[in-house]
Amino acid sequence: MNSTVKKPEGCIELSNVQVNFIQNGARFAAVQDVSLNVQPGEFVSVVGPSGCGKSTLLNIVAGFLKPSDGVVTMDGQAIHGPSAERGVVFQQYSLFPWLKVRENVEFGLKLQGMARHEREGKARTLLGLAGLLPFENHYPDQLSGGMKQRVGIVRALATGPRVLLMDEPFGALDSQTRVVMQEILTHMWQQWKISVLFITHDIEEAIFLSDRVYVMTARPGKIKAEIPIDLPRPRSAAMTASPVFTALHRQLKSLIREESLAAMGGEIDPATMGQSWHLGEEGMETLR
Ligand SMILES: Nc1ncnc2c1ncn2[C@@H]1O[C@H](COP(=O)(O)OP(=O)(O)OP(=O)(O)O)[C@@H](O)[C@H]1O
Fold first, then answer.
1. Which has the least CB within 10 A, 80, 194, 212, 255?
2. Which family does it belong to (predicted)?
């Protein structure tokens, strides 16, 4: 946990959550017995192999999905559906293409019944903080991917949520833009001190941004480990070369690698990985 002053609200708790889905007529557990929490003002990431149920967990906290079993609360109240108290940012830029940048940010405020001049002022302040004010009259199509995602974050924050839920928000960006976006997000988060639940495949991203990281097992997704990230704040790109960062990276990589191999269902034998394939004449024949 960082040492900044916490808002008194924005506590998410999942207790013994199970999610069953039906695929091809068969029921299976996507998520099993998951208990995790995000404390007020904390930045928590969830990492794990593809298909382990990360997005499913986020969708439950967002209120888009109901768990088959278990309890999910925000500040002690059960979550029954989506709410402006929980802002969501997805990988796909979910901006309205027919609205200008500022109109996109104002959208939720308009729904809340805020008067025009007030919402204009609020949107402009937030856009200014994100360095986007010069683009307030642009349409989303006129922006780069990184800028669109910054608008998406500002829009999610505009209505004053207690929690920000982010599902691979930088997954569609090139690696350089992604690193810059991580720095922007960590600075924005330090100003807003809002609780964040962040889903990512990227170990470095999870370490750089988070106070704690949960690692999930391969499907059915359970919590395999909870790793505190004891790096000072504010975070800077230079920290990624520090011994603490490197050790955390190694630890998380090893935990996830075990699960990624498990997720492949024994298709790959770790003992022989890296050895060249010797197909033999018979094997070559099957490829011809
Ligand atoms: N609505 C649904 N109906 C049936 N199966 C689903 C549904 N949603 C997700 N699944 C399955 O549940 C499992 C978990 O999916 P989920 O998208 O949560 O995983 P993930 O960890 O976010 O994956 P990725 O990292 O690849 O995005 C997957 O096997 C997925 O195919």
1. 80
2. Belongs to the ABC transporter superfamily.
Q: Rounded to the nearest whole angstrom, what is the distance from the C-alpha of residue 251 to the centroid of ligand 1?
A: 25
Residue 153 and residue 155: Cα distance in Å, rounded? 5
Question: Which pLDDT tens digit goes with each residue over 59-87?
Answer: 999 999 999 999 999 999 999 999 989 99
Q: Whose alpha carbon is nearest atom 31 of ligand 1?
A: 51
**Is-contact 277 72, C-beta < 8 A?**
no
Indicate the top mutation candidate among 21, 68, 92, 223 to test ligand 1's pocket, ranked by most ligand atoms within 8 A of CB: 21
- Decide which of 277 and 39 is more confident: 39
* Ligand 1 close to Cβ of residue 162 (< 6 A): no
Neighbours of 25 (CB within 10 A): 5
Hey, whose CA ends up nearest to atom 18 of ligand 1?
A: 53
| Residue of 9, 163, 177 whose CA lies nearest to 86 | 163
